[in-house]
Amino acid sequence: MLPTGLLFTCRWIHSFCIIKTMTKKLLCFYIICLCFIAGCKKNQSTLTNSTETVEPSEIVKKTLEANKTGLTVGYIRGINSLINTFFFENKIDSKNISFKMLQFDDKAGLLSALLKNQINIAVFDIADTQKINLILPSSLSILCTLGYENINLLTTDNTYSSLSSLIDKDVYLCEEGSYIDIFFKSLLKRNSIPCSADDEAGRVHLKYGISAAEISGKLYDGKIEYAVLDCVLSGIALSKKSALIKKIDLLKDYYLLNKNSIAEYVVLTNPSYAKSHPNAVFFYLDKIKEGANWIKDNKNMTLISCQKNGIFVTKQNAVSAFDNFNLVIEDGENCKKTVNDFLDFCDLEQFSPSLFYSF
Predict the structure, then answer these.
(1) CA distances (Å), origin 179, targets 173, 197, 352
(2) 3-class SS at 154?
(3) Which residues pair with 153 in a beta bridge?
(4) How many angstroms separate the CA atoms of 25 and 42, rounded?
(5) Considering the entire predicted model, what is its pTM?
């Protein structure tokens, strides 16, 4: 038997050799997954739907057995839930392309599945897309952006006049690090207004970890004065049509800078899949555009589908969300401009042209 010290040294050398032989890509993949697990909170939204929740360990079996030659799209529970009602209601299929949607509970699992080609397309918040690109540049391709064209400040403070009114006030957001959080911080910075997650004097105090439903209740109860939400969540929060709550459009400054649209969610695919399955890519883009128009033209049917699939808790919530709904989908050159305009506004590094899918 080897002495304890020598045994420890051998084991250490053996471990070091294993690590050193790992490829750079595997190391990057490991790092990005760790970053997502450690740094990205799970979506705490209470929104649900009828698509099957598939754990990462089941993905390969599900996709290989049920959708060998088809198109599989993954998304996070609660993200892009309105557009999904179109796919639920119409049961999208094609003679040549079998279509399936898989729901994930965490971003790390979704990213892992996409990088391994276990799913073909995935929907991410643009803030998460930016993190992915920093660590795994050119590993994925952007197909299009989804934007609801509205980010609102909701307040019960009748004295509110401008962003400077928020200094020394608590402002609630659903998730730290989301595109809404990054946009709001950038908006404050452009107006020379400091902010922080603590209660330091002379700053806007940012508060996280509260759902849209909780925000709605606390606004009505007078427990909070300010919240920042997108148009769909604002619709849910304003579902009681309370005259006590004012809605301030925070995107006015953004559009004054000649921005044509805003990228909130980004649709990603694996470049190898896009190259070998162009018809499937175009099929998805056509259907998601069709879906946005269908929702606008069939609000009653969409409402029924929403209720059936649990996406909105009440009819009132859904109607309010539709009142604020204006989904804009950008692809091609418009997609590049939309993404990089947002990154530029937020002082983030712009994406390389090679990152975008070439039509």
Answers:
(1) 11, 16, 20
(2) strand
(3) 228, 248
(4) 25
(5) 0.76
| 282 C-beta neighbours (distance < 10 Å), count | 13
Cα 242 to the chain's mean position, in Å? Answer: 28
Confidence check: pLDDT of 122 > 70: yes
Q: Which residues contact 79 (CB under 8 A, 6 or more apart)?
A: 43, 123, 125, 265
Query: How are strands ordered across the β-sheet holding 71-76?
Result: 99-104, 71-76, 121-125, 265-269, 141-147, 328-331
Pair 268, 121: CB distance under 8 Å: yes
Contact predicate 166/203, CB 8 Å: no
End-to-end CA distance of the chain: 64
- 44 pLDDT above the threshold of 50: no
CB atoms within 10 A of CB 68: 8
What's the rounded Cα separation, in Å, for the pair 40 and 74? 17
pLDDT digits (tens, 9 = 90+) for 52-78: 444 444 544 454 454 455 788 888 765
Q: Which two tokens stand for residue 71?
A: 């198109």
Tell me the residue type at 213.
A
Q: How far is CA 341 from the centre of its chain?
A: 17
pLDDT at residue 181 greater than cutoff 90: yes
Helices (H), the chain: 4-21, 24-39, 56-66, 81-90, 107-115, 126-135, 179-190, 212-221, 231-237, 252-256, 271-276, 278-297, 299-308, 315-323, 332-345
Residue 262 above 60 pLDDT? yes
Instruction: Name the most confidently modeled range: 55-69, 188-202, 238-252.
Output: 188-202
C-alpha 24, offset from chain centre? 27
What one-character-per-residue DSSP string does 74-116 give? EEETTTTHHHHHHHHHHT---SS--EEEEEES-HHHHHHHHHT
Quick: pLDDT tens for 303-352.
666 666 556 656 666 666 666 667 788 898 889 999 999 999 999 888 88
Mean pLDDT across the stretch 210-226?
Answer: 83
